[in-house]
Amino acid sequence: MANATPTADARRPLRRRRRPPSTLIRHGVLLLFLIVMVYPLVWMAVSAFKPAHLILTDPGLVSDEYTFENFRDGWHALNQPFSGFFLNSLAVTVGSIVGNLFSCSLAAYALARLDFRGKRLFFAITLVSVMLPMHVLIIPQYIFFSQLGWVNTYLPLLIPKFLATDAFFVFLMVQFIRGIPRDLDRAAAIDGAGPFRVFWHIIFPLMRPALVTTTIFTFIWTWNDFFTPLIYLTSTDMYTVPVALNSMVSSESQQGIGMLFAMSLLSLAPVLAFFVFAQRYLIRGVATTGLK
Amino acid sequence: MARAVGRRRPSGAPGHRRQGRAAYVFLSPWLLGLALVTAVPLGASLYLAFTDYNILSTPRFTGFANFERMLGDDRFWAAASVTARYVFISVPLQLAFALLLAVVLDRGLRGLAFYRGAFYLPSLLGASVAVAILWREAFGHNGLVNSVLGWVGIEGQSWLQNPATALSTLIVLNVWTFGSPMVIFLAGLRQVPEELYEAARVDGASWYRRFRHITVPMLTPIIFFNLILQTIGAFQTFTQAHIISGGTGGPVDSTLFYTLYVYQQGFKSFDMGYASALAWVLLLVIGGVTALHFFLSKYWVFYGDD
C-alpha cells in the first residue's frame, strides 16, 4: 500500500493533461446514470408533498401545489398512529444492537484469542451458518417460540440477537481482533489479568471500529426487516414500521398513494441519516466484509 | 521455545484449563444460540419435512409423501422457475454493472467518493418495504416508468399486471442494488499492481485488452466472492415479491418467489410439514449451486500465488 500511493499520484496529473475529453465524457455518462438511478427515490420524496391527484398525472419534480396532507393522513391511516410503529421499531432495533454487541463480541474474543477444544470446529460452524437460509429454521423456531407463548411479543426478534445468531458479526469481530497486537494481552496477563479483564479492559475498547460497523448494520437490517416481524407480530399495536406499511398497501386505494409515499419516506429517514453521517463506516464495512 | 513452554505446562495444567473454562463462558450465549436457534430447528425441520403437520395436531410421519407431492405441484414448479430465472438473470446483470462502474470509477477519477456513495445508496434501501412500495407505484399503470416512456413516445403497459413483465420489474430492482458489489470491486481494484497496466500501455495494449487481460483476471477471486454472496442472497428474496404482489405471488404466479411459496404453505395454509420439505429443497439447491460454483471456480478463478 505504501508504495502504491506515489505511483497513483504520479499517474494522475499525466492522465489529466493528456485526455481531458474522455474524462468529461466519463463524468457525463456517470452523472446520467446516477440521475436515472436516483430519480425514483427523488420522485417518491417529491410526490409525498404533492396532493394525491397530481402524483400520477405529473411525474415532474416541480409542482404547483405542495401539501403536508399526505403526512397528516398517513400518520393516522391505520387504527393507530405511526408514532407507535416508530417506537416499536426503535425498541426492537435498539434491543437488537445491544444483543449483537454483547453476544457477538464475547464469542469473537473466545474464537480469536483463547485456547480451547473445538475452536476450529466452532469457527467453521460460524462460517457455514452465515450461509444458512433462515427459511429452513423459521418453522421449528416459530413452533418453539409459540409453545413458550412468545408469539406477538418482541422476544422472538430479540432473544436470538442475544445468542450471537448473526454469525456475520461474529466473523467480522474475529477478523478485527486478530489484527490487535497480542503483546497487549500478554502484558496484561503478566500483570495478572485473567481472560475476562483482558477482554473488558483491553480488547473491547480497542474493538471500537468493529463495534461501530456492527451497530450501523444491525440498525439498518433490523429497521428494514420485514419477514420476522411479519411472522411473529399479530396485533396492530405491536407492528414495526415495515409491517405497518405492508398493511397500508393491502388497504390501498388510488387516494392512498400519497400517504403511502409519505410514510415510506419517513420510514427511510433513519437509514438515510446513517447514509449521510456514517458513510465512511458503511463503505468500509462493505469493502472489508461484503456486508450488503 | 513454544515447545518448552508447552512441556512445562501440558494442556491439563491449571492455566490452560482456566483459559478453556473461560472460553466456554465467553461462548455460552453463542453455544446456546447454536443449539436452540440453529441446530435443533435445523434437525426439527428435517424431521417435519417427512411429516404431515398443521401445528394443531401432532406431526404424522408420511415418508417421502411431501417430496412426491412437490413433483405434481404446479405452484412448486412455478416458484422454482420464477426463482431460478430471477437468480440467474439478475445476479450476472447486477455484477456486470458493478464491475463496469467500478472500472470506470477506479482510474483516478475526481469525485470518486461522491459517485461511490451515491451508487451505493440503493443497496442500503433495496430490501426495504418502502422501496418495494416505490417500485410497485413506479411500475404501475400510471406510474413513473410509463410517464417517462410516454415522453419519448413509447406506449406504456401494466408492468405488474402482465405476467410476462412482472418478474422483470423485480430483476430491475435487484440490478439497481449493484452498489455493494461495486464497492467490493473498487476495494479489489486497488490491489491490482499499477506496474501491470504500465507494462501493457508500453506494449500498446488498448483499453479493452487491458480490461480483458489484466483487470478481469486479477479480479476473478472478487468476482467469485460477489457471485457466491449475491446468489445466496437472491435465492432468499422475499420482501420485494411479497409487497409487489400483495403476498399472492401473482399475477398467475409470475412473482411467486420460492420463499414466498414456503411462507404461504407454512404460515397461511399452516401446512408446516410440506413447507419444511420445500425449505429443505431450497437449502439443498443453494448448497448445490454454491458447491458447483466452488467446483467451477478452479477453471476460471485466478489466484496470484499459483
From TrEMBL, chain A:
It is found in: Cell membrane. Pfam families: BPD_transp_1. SUPFAM superfamilies: MetI-like (SSF161098). One of its GO terms (biological process) is transmembrane transport. The keyword Transport applies. One of its GO terms (cellular component) is plasma membrane. The chain crosses the membrane at residues 24-46, 85-109, 121-145, 157-177, 198-223, 257-278. Its main location: membrane. It is a multi-pass membrane protein. Keywords: Cell membrane, Membrane, Sugar transport, Transmembrane, Transmembrane helix, Transport. InterPro entries: MetI-like, MetI-like_sf. Residues 86-278 form the ABC transmembrane type-1 domain. PROSITE patterns: ABC_TM1. Belongs to the binding-protein-dependent transport system permease family. This is Multiple sugar transport system permease protein. It comes from Nocardiopsis flavescens.
TrEMBL record, chain B:
One of its GO terms (biological process) is transmembrane transport. GO terms for cellular component: plasma membrane. This is Multiple sugar transport system permease protein. CDD domains: TM_PBP2 (cd06261). Belongs to the binding-protein-dependent transport system permease family. It is a multi-pass membrane protein. It comes from the Bacteria. It comes from Nocardiopsis flavescens. Residues 80-293 form the ABC transmembrane type-1 domain. Coiled coil: none annotated. It is found in: Cell membrane. InterPro entries: ABC_transporter_permease (IPR051393), MetI-like (IPR000515), MetI-like_sf (IPR035906). Keywords: Cell membrane, Membrane, Sugar transport, Transmembrane, Transmembrane helix, Transport.
